[in-house]
Amino acid sequence: MSAPPDLLGHYRQMLLIRRFGERAARAYTEAKIGGYCHLNLGEEATVVGLMSALDPSDYVFTNYREHGYALARGIDPGRVMAELYGRSDGVSKGWGGSMHLFDAQARLLGGYGIVGGQLPLATGAALAIAYRGGQEVVLCHLGDGTTNIGAFHESLNLAALWKLPIVYAVVNNQLGMGTTVEMSSAEPELHKRAAAYRMYGERVDGNDVVAVRDATARAVAMAREGKPVLLETVSGRLRGHSVVDPAAYRTKEEVAALREADPLLALGDRLREAGTLSDADQEKLEQSVMAEVEAAVAFADASAPPDVKTLFDYNYATTVPNDLKRLPGQPLFAVAGA
Amino acid sequence: MTVMSYRQAINETLRSEMLRDDRVFLIGEEIGIFEGSYKITAGLLAEFGEQRVRDTPISEEGFTGAAIGAAMLGLRPVVELMTINFSLLALDQIVNHAAKIHGMFGGQRSVPMVIRTPGGGGQQLGATHSQNVELYYAFVPGLKVVAPSNPADAKALLLAAIRDDDPVLFLENLALYNTKGDVPDDDVPGEIGRAAVTRAGSDLTLIGYSRMASLGLSVAEELAAREGIDAEVIDLRSLRPLDRDTIVESVRKTHAAVVLEDDWLTYGIGAEIAATISDGAFDQLDAPVRRVAMAEVPLPYAKSLETAALPSAADVETAIRQTLAAVGRLR
Predict the structure, then answer these.
(1) Given an 8 Å threshold on Cβ–Cβ distance, is A124 in contact with B103?
(2) Catalytic residues of B
(3) B126 and chain A: CB distance < 8 Å anywhere?
(4) Which residue in A120, A129, A318 is closest to B164 by CB distance?
(5) Which of A41, A164, A292, B326 lies in the 20 to 30 Å Cα band around A151?
(6) Who contacts B199 (Cβ-Cβ below 8 Å, separation ≥6)?
(7) What are phi and psi of B204, to 5 degrees?
(8) Is B191 within the bounds of a domain?
(9) pLDDT digits (tens, 9 = 90+) for B277-312
């Protein structure tokens, strides 16, 4: 069986996401990156499968584990890394950080740090598309734990009632921080929740990039017809919840099984078996991806931190009088005799 | 000029803005077929259709968030939250998303939306349906909060709010819906962030917003006519941004201030006004800043208790007299 023509491209993107994540973890331990930092390690097939089924004009909303989505959406890795570094050339100009990547041109409309906050927003974006009679689709990424918040129910109900062009993609990595899906969801087959909204739901192997891409393409086609879809991908998280989490709640057996199912290694094997990827190709690919990642790090390192003079630049989009622009030590009014 | 009610001013402004700009649409519970719990949207579904007057299920978080998402794509939603009490169900979407999206993403997208919602007690609706929690929103950078006290300002500020590119909480008040006043015929937007001196005076400064600005003005007029007390009255109109200069300028002239608010006193908007006066006019004060505010209880249902807990004209009058007595200016 020969590989579909774009499989090598998917493999390269997955490798980029893997190496970018690993490099970000290192930069975090070097204190180049602050705050929280959640990686997509182990979810690469899912990320690339979901993103590759979209048109450039489609919109993407994600949660805080979103570096891979930004890369797969074609955003320059240097600008993504610069955001993690909190620099002025970052995609969100240093205002967002790891959890709040945003690129209006790439139609990646965030990066949201509050679990499930993006669901109503994505639903509203789909409403705007329908309002204008547009052909775009919204893909709303969420985690397995998010299916238990109220906004999940409200959003899916609205989307189904209003026949909105949206795909809710539950990336089930089987853990919400340290809590398993079985511990948190009375119905652990999350795609079945769709039935409550008379919505189409489907579960797909999140470690298989082709399966994810094909399922997403079907879902997107339905959504474009005004039939929202709940798509569940099942994969794993190779590391802890965030960079600082050692994942001590996992057994050795679980870790071994995760490594066994590693989607990047699996696709590499598949390509080698198909004769599309030689050892020399693999070596060249690794070198080219590492060069891209190191260039991203160099770009981030060289980018200036945002100027303190810009602190109040985004208070409001429409300027109004009496907007208070004071630093913590400054008085409200000039102090007599000071 | 046309004399109309506060309710009618809002209704007609919504209508004229929807005619002017097809990106403007209304979304909320019972706003279409039912014509609004307080009939603010009467007639609009029939005129504009379901697309632009969108009835929602009871899902405050869902539809408020959806309005934010639609605004991110360039539409201009006007959300009706049936009362401000129910806004608490949408708090995450308003505080964590509407207020943050412009700044947190480096100014790439704004959120041009309006959230219209009435506050206010005095209707025997009990503790959960009678609150004034606009403070929660006035506290948050990224939001704008306006609170008109009369039909003319309701029109001007709603025009400004709809045309503004930021999320604006437009605070209405149950007790004001039937009040009447002159409203300009032309569509001239007001300025968000500016207070109004609704009565010039020299004895002391009364400061309020929404119902309490209206009440303060009527008490001041009555005391002037009856006893020659000359109070200056400031209607804040905007809670964020807050027009501190107008407050301080007035107090530097009158040397005394009474702050009127319909919410609880502790940590309230009046506390922010008093602190502002302390910062800007400390050396000009002849008496402590006095605050008139609601009793610190969940508002009871029984009329006797409800009336006792809410600030009244008599409470305002007492505060004025005691403040003037403190500065030795009581005639």
Answers:
(1) no
(2) 60, 129
(3) no
(4) A318
(5) A41
(6) B217, B220, B221, B231, B232, B233
(7) -165, 170
(8) no
(9) 999 999 999 999 999 999 999 999 999 999 999 999
